[in-house]
Structures are given as structure tokens and as C-alpha cells.
Amino acid sequence: MTRYIxxxxxxxxxxxxxxxxIIFILFNLVSGDPTALLLGKNATAKQMVExxxxxxxxxxxxxxxxxxxxxxxxxxxxxxxQSKQEIMHMVKMGAYPSLALSIPAFTISTILSILISLxxxxxxxxxxxxxxxxxxxxxxxxxxxxxxxVFQWYFGYYLGWFEISGFEQGFPNFVxxxxxxxxxWIVLSLGPDVRFFRTIILDEIYQDYVRTARAKGLGExxxxxxxxxxxxxxxIITYVVIQIPFLILGALLLESFxxxxxxxxxxxxxxxxxxxxxxxxxxxxxxVAYILFGLLTDILYTVADPRVKLK
Amino acid sequence: xKTNSLWVDAxxxxxxxxxxxxxxxxxxxxxxxxxxxxMGILSAGWSQEVGGSNMPPSAEFIFGTDxxxxxxxxxxxxxxxxxxxxxxxxxxxxxxxxxxxxxxxxYFGGWVDDLITWFYTTxxxxxxxxxxxxxxxxxxxxxxxxxxxxxxxxxxxxxxLIRGEVMKHKEREYVQAAGAIGGxxxxxxxxxxxxxxxxxxxxxASLQFQTAIxxxxxxxxxxxxxxxxxxxxxxxxxxxxxxxxxxxWQLAASTLAMFLIVLAFNLLGxxxxxxLDPKLKGK
Amino acid sequence: xxxxxxxxxxxxxxFHTQEGVTRAVNNISFDIPAGKTVGxxxxxxxxxxxTSLAVMGLLQKPAGKVExxxxxxxxxxxxxxxxxxxRKIRGNEISMIFQEPMTSLNPVFKVxxxxxxxxxxxxxxxxxxxxxxxxxxxNQVGIPSPAQSAHKYPHEMSGGQKQRVMIxxxxxxxxxxxxxxxxxxALDVTIQKQVIELMMNLQQQxxxxxxxxxxxxxxxxxxxxxxxxxxxxNIVEQNHVKSIYExxxxxxxxxxxxCRPNLGANPRRLLTVSDFMNEEGKxxxxxxxxxxxxxxxxxxxxxxxxxxxxIKNLTTNFPIKGGLFGRTIxxxxxxxxxxxxxxKGKTFGLVGESGCGKTTLGRTILRLIEPSAGNIIYNxxxxxxxxxxxxxxxxxxxQIIFQDPYSSLNPRMTVGEILAEPLIIHGIGNSKAxxxxxxxxxxxxxxxxxxxxxxxxxxFSGGQRQRICIARALMLRxxxxxxxxxxxxxxxxxxxxxxxxxxxxxxxxxxxxxFISHDLSVVNFISDEVAVMYGGxxxxxxxxxxxxxxxxxEYTKSLLSAIPKGQPKHF
Lengths: 311, 283, 571
Hints:
Shape of chain A: globular
Oligomer: heterotrimer
Distance between the termini of chain C: 21 Å
Number of helices of chain C: 22
Shape of chain C: globular
Helix content of chain C: 25-40%
Distance between the termini of chain A: 7 Å
């Protein structure tokens, strides 16, 4: 086990190098010289040279790449071009509102989806199954933007039930601010999640061991909740855990619509103001999270599935 | 003498499926509209002021007009052209990359597999939205950047899928039999294995297409998509300010158009899976 | 006369699918008396499994539907029971064992818990009691160190042990009726024998009735009291096992009895069902010369004409990866230092149980797997280290027929394309039409209809597909063919037809075979020389007749004694 984890950790090195390479290519090679952008039209040549030096852009490309790689391992991303703050400090500040929204929303939507898909699987082929399947597909066919716009307008402006914008630190102060975006999040996730979980559960229902369970005299409910669910949890865990890193990035659109000062909003701002270091930092951080949670998924696999032995 | 290839069988199953046929009709209608719009036959005058500002739907303008008095119907048509082109071009970029890399990795294994696995792991490690934003930001705003960004993010999952399937098929006896009669790698891979995974590519394409359409809307909303011409995304963006003033038709029209085509692709994808992947039959 | 425990009366089952309605079971009636074993015999698709599922109330809904009839269990019609009532009977009064032990157990629960579950549902036991009883049962079915084994997961057990777990689960509540659906088909011969003996002992110990479903009449002789023969959804014959063996009435039963090769002398070609009965089910008279038993050493065509293939100290290793960077840390010797010679025009049989290395050996000889050491000498030429064009040319001489007729044909190619492909690769035939003509010629030779040239593999039955595979292997007119378990996936009656075909083709094309199989009777029938493999090595080798009559190695003896006698033994 430890050996497996160690090996996987070593394997993350080439992936991180690759991520750094993509980011380096995008931001240092393709994007061109950012100094003109930062200093505006009236910048003097001298100012530009100074800034280039300050930003480390006069180093050789090789050294610039090394800088990106170094930041991927040390998490030292320097300062924002825009706010001049330490980027890691900004990340720490933004993490709280992001997680205040994403953790409850994600947890509720996952549990709800599993419950609904179990009900649907139990009544497979019947009216309710068909109804929920159609609802899922129809729901997935509407742009997430439309949900956000309409819900915000209807429940926020029109009915006035929820705060429309802003955030306050500390529980339960933030609740009114995250409630509506969390609901939208849940509505958005239900469609694809229920559909996916339903397929997984039905895949299991047609396995031979379910026939054995029936031959034992078990009832359909016990078979579903004990035998089938336990097996279905294996792919479900993978699907769920691998989404967690994206929670850290926050819900880009939701945060920007509802004025929540989280990481997603921060990334969008950085984007609009061409604040390369912040965008780079967020890309690297989310990749690191993705890689680590990928490792976590594999470890959870051994817990859920006795057949998997990590070597 | 009737003889049925798996493709003919699949098509027969598909043609019996009413939802699938309806979906196919919708896809065809949207494609025709997109082509006519691209040729300048439809919606060429979307930019002209044809009526008053923000007129609600009426007999003259079935979707009403926008702030500048332009026909929302024409804008939706033009948006269709943008959406379909994004779906098509990104599929044309992502699918060949995914299929070729996945097939090579799965078939040859060894260092080829290591390299390609590393490549797609690296790409999929960066959250799609970050990669999308970064690429469009760097290539400059506009439709070209959207094509490249969506193409570059779309191939990973297909590559992984094809790799796994090719690995499975490589061990099957029919591929070994092709080796035993003297067939080389290219024959085994391209004549034997690939036709047996093509159905996955088709199913994936319908997914790819609608994901691209949905992503274009978001990128356009973020201001990274098409510039200076209407797309469903920019129309939904306009609605952000309009809704409070009770102007709902621009949102409704673009949402309806998008809903129809994405729904059609969703249903078609499901029906294709049922028809082409017989082992999933009856679920 | 006492009422039977189970009485199936006029049962008809239909399957309703999109393609229409198929009759799976047509108006069948039979009884299972208390304490007796009834064997249900038939080929795949004959309706025997559907019958058992109907008894259990486990027909796949909503497709499978009982149209009419009664299933009386202890005098009560099971078909009138609701789901709750059936649940109390399943696993309690009637229990069932399935064919595939590999997939029939839930992979994520310990086997002990899976056995205990059936006790907690029906017997009001608490977890501890049920677990203790489960360990007890595991001991009874002969699982070593049951207290520890109960904590194992299914994947940690062998196929035979898993089937024992299934049996333990089935007998846990001392059911009155045990249904076994091909319980030994997926197991190796020696394991098969042990499992059948176990089931017989348990049946007597618990005074159960048993419904034993199989495609192989040979298995049933040892354990059944009565036999029911099913053919195309109907029962064609039912009688005491002795009467069936000694005086079968229906031509289909006669065919089934005759088509299985036995260890003694066989006719020159095996009899098949079609010798006894035509397509319409009308009885035929079998010509006397078809029945004549022959001694193969006296047949001139089986005299060797010099060595065609010589294997010298052949070893094939598979690497075991491990360590931090997945380096190769060790090897499995799949084939370990094997040497033998094959005479031209003869058949060399290779027998052994799964995992003994026989398949790897066959593929190594053809260079489909790379050998690690040793030499393969074909017709005087050392082919161990040839590559590229030279190896490709060799493929014209050496061919293979695989085991699984379902996966060995490309489902997206027509039969014509499949058969023409070898010709295209080797540049034989100057036009498509010429190549198709050659394909047609061979289709005719292997007993396929030439007009089926444009059909796809899924439109053929298993036996027909295997014929296509044979035709493909012969397209290049090879001298040497490896038959890798080529008849193992087929029903016994089809198996006999394919074996006959292989022999006919051997005579016509002067072929030399390596015939790989786990079935000793089949190998005995077809081979001139036999080698027994165990753990990657050949443990015994010699003339077929010698090995079968005087085995010198313990392992060979145990293999031989495990073969079902194909005769009823208790009367």
C-alpha cells in the first residue's frame, strides 16, 4: 500500500511537469509580451524594460519554464499583477466563500441523486422511471446560464426570497447568500448525476450475483440496497471523488453572478484583467488537486472493492 | 437472401425508435438552417433595424425585437449557424485526435502507451474550464479561439475510452486470428479493431457536439466567444439586464433553440447507444 | 403411488421481445419424486434452463411469461403464489445452483456472509449463529480450513471452491428440492468429478430431490434416477436412466448417446444426431458401416511419413512486474522446457487442465507468442528466430483454429470477406471474384451453404461459426494446424460433427494437427499421440492407446478417473 502510494506520488511528477509545460506554453510562449498590456499605451521603453526584468520575462525561456515548475511544487506563485497581493494569500481568502457554497451544495446534490436513482432503478421500466429520465434529459438540455439567470431573477428579484449578491464571513451569516446558488447548483447536478447513477445501478442489476440473491429468497428492496448498491458504489465513488478538485476551483459562473468573493470569481476577474499569474496559479492548483484526488480515488477503490489490490 | 451487417441491424433498430427519428429530424433541420444561414440565404439581415426597440413577440416578429430593433428570430437563426459550426468543427478536431491517440496507445502499449497516457492525463488534470479560458484568452477573443479551445479539451475522454476498448479487442481471438493468417499491425488495427469500436466514436460524437454547443454559450457569456455577431450565448448574456425590465423573449428564443438541439443530440445519443451497443439492450 | 415432490404439468413459456414471440418451453410435463434425482438433458436453447427458472419464479420479467400449465410443489401450484410467498420458498424449500461460479457470487461480500445471509432470511438466526452455521456448511462441502475461508472474498477462491460455496448456500436450509443448472460445465474435469460426488452425497444425506440440468448425457449417468430429454422446447423422451442408456426410443436421444467419444474404441467417424434423425425429426436408419468400431493403428493414412515439427526445450516466460517502477522482477514459466516431435499427417493431442500452459505452448509454436528459450524446427527449418517476410510466409504453412467461435470471427466482416482475407494478405488470387470462388469451394468442403457467403458471423450458430473458422484456417492450404480447444465451446452433438469434419479434412488435405483440449475422451478419439501437460511441463507422452490404457503418472491417472463414465452405475 505505502509502496503503491509512493509510486503514484512519483508518477505525479511527470504529470505536474506536463501541466507546467502546457501553462508555460500558453502564458509565456504563445501569449506574447504582457508589458504593453500592463503599462498601457503611453509606456516608455525604459519602463517596459524595467517591468520585464521585474516579472522575470527577460530570463531565458528555459529558466522561465523552471519558474513555472518550481511554483507547481512550492505553491509560491508570486504576486498578482492586478492587486499586487501574494497569490497564495488571495487563494486562502477566496477558499472560504467558495467552499461555503460548494461543500453543502455538492454533498446534498450527491446524496439526493443517489436516492433518486435508487428509486428510479427500483421502478425501472415503469412510469416514474420514464418520467424522471425525461426530466433529466430535458433538464440537461438547458444551458446552466439560463438556470442561473431565471432563478436569480425569479426567486431573488421577483419573489425576494434570497439575497441576490454578496457574502458574509462565518456560519450562519453566509447562509442567506449561498442558499440560492446552492439550490441552483443542486438543480444543475441532478440531471447528469441521476442519469449516470441510474445506468451504473442498472448495470449491476443484470449481473449474475443478483440472480443468486433472488434465488436465496431475498426481496427486491434488500437486493437493491444491499447487494446492488454496495457494488454500484465502486464506480459512484470514483465519479464523485474526482469532482471534488473542481469544487476547490469553485463555481465560476455562480460566484460571479451572485457576487461571492470566492476562487471562481477571483479567476474570472483575473481573466478579465489579464492577470496571468493568478490564472496560472489557479490552473496549477486545480491540477495538483486533481492529481491528488485521483490518487485518493484509487485508494478508496481498495476500500470499496476487495478485488483491487494495489501493488 | 437477406443478410444483415451489424450496421444494418442497428439502423433498423434505430428507425423503429420514434424518439430517435424525431431527434434526427430536428438535427437535420438545424443543420439545414445553419447551412442556409452560412450561405447568406437565411438571416442575412440580422443586423438591420427592422422594428421598434424591445418589441414583444407578434405576428410580424414571432420572437420580438431586441434593444436595437433587430429581429430576434434572425438572431436566433444566426446563432444556430454559430452553434452548429462550433459543434462540427470541435468534433472534427477532437474526434480524430482522440481516436488516433487512443488506438495507438491501446494497440501498441509499452512506451507509446506511457507517452500518450501521460499526455492525456496532463491535459485532463487541468480543469476544462481553466484550459478553455486560458486558450481563448491567449488566442484572442473570437470564434477561432473557441474552436481550438473546445477541440483541445474534448479529445481526452474519447482517447481514454478508445484506448481501453482497443486494449480489450487486441486480446480477442479474431484479432489473433488476423495475426495467424499473416496480417500486420496496420491490418489488425485499422481493418479489424477500429471498425469494432466505431460505434463508440459515433455515440461520443453526439455527446461532443452538444457539449461544444453548451460550452460555446458559456464562453460567449464570459465575453470570450464570438465578437460582433449574435450567438445564443451573447443573447442569453443580454437577457441578464433585460429580464428585470420584463423583456424575456430574447432569452426564451435562444433557450428554446438551444434546448431543442441539445435535447435532440441527447436523445439521439441514447438511442444510438441502444442500437449500436447491443449488450446494453433492454436497459 | 405417492404424489411427486415436484410435478410440472403442461407448462408453456413464451418470450416476448421486440422481434416477436418465441416459444421457449412447449407444453411439457414431468415429475420429480421425493428423494430422487431427475436429469434434464438438451442442447443450448432447448428450453431446459427456462424450465428451471420457471420453477424458481425467476423468469426474466417482463419478457418471459408462463402461458399455461401448472408447477405443483408438494401439491401447491407455485404459479399461483405471489412474490412474497415465492420468496419464502426460494433458498428455503427450493434452492438453485448456477453454471457460472465466477460471476454468481457477489464480489464485494465475504463468502461466509453470503452463506449466512440465506440463513438469516429464512431461519430467524442472528448474525453470530448464522456465521457459525455457515462455517459448518463450508466444512461439509469440503472447503479447507472453513473458519478462515469464510473470511475470504469470492475472487480469492478457485472456481471449484466457489461452486462449493454456492452448494453450501443452496443446502443451508435443507431444501426439499435442489436445482442445479449445468453446475460443473465451467470446471476442470477433476474438479467436476469432485463436485458431482459432493452433490450426490449431500442429496442422499439430506434426502433432497434434485433437478440436474446438463447438455452432456455422460455426466448424468452417474447421478440421475430419471432422465428428461429436451429438444427444441419439447420433451422428446423421459424414462429411468437405465432405460435411456439401454434402450433409448427417440432418435435424438440415440444420437446424443452415440455422439460422445468414449475412452475405448470408437467408430472411424463419430455418430451424430443427424445420423439418427433428419431435419424434420424423422428417424433414419444408421448404416452398419458407420457403427463399426476401428483400431486407428491399423489405418494406413495414420502411418507417419517423417518428422514435420520438432520442439526442443521450449520455454515461454511471462514477466511479473513489480517494484517502484514496474520493472520485471520475476517470470512465470507458462511453458517450461518442453520437447517433442510430430510426425507428418498425424495428430498430436495435448491435454491438461486450465492454466497448465497448453494454450501458450500452441501459440508459441506458431510464433504468436514469443518463446523465451529453446527451438522450434519446422520441416527442418529453425523458425525460432525468423521475422518479417519470412515469418509471414510461414503463416501459409501453419495455422490455428481457436476455441471460442463467437470471439474469433470479426463481427463486422462477412463470411466472404473473412475467408478472402488470408488470400489478400498473401497476394493469392488475381481478382475479388477469383478469391470468392476459392472461398466458396472451401465453404462447401466444411459443410456450409455457399449462398451464405454474404452473411455476417452473428447470423450463424456456434457450430457453423466454428466451421467458418476452420475454413479460414484452411484458405492458405496449410500443412499444419493447431486446434486450440476448438470443440470445447460446442454442445456435444455439434462437437461430434466438427470432430468428424476435422478428420475428413485431415485426410483430404494431408494435415498435421496439434489438438489441444481439456477433454480426454475427445483427445483420445482424434489423436495418434498424446502428451499430458501439468504446470508448464509435459508429464507423460506416448501413443494415445498406451497412455489411456496404462497411464504411468499419478496425475494422468487422476485425470482419467475423473472422466464421467457415461453409464448409469447404481442399479
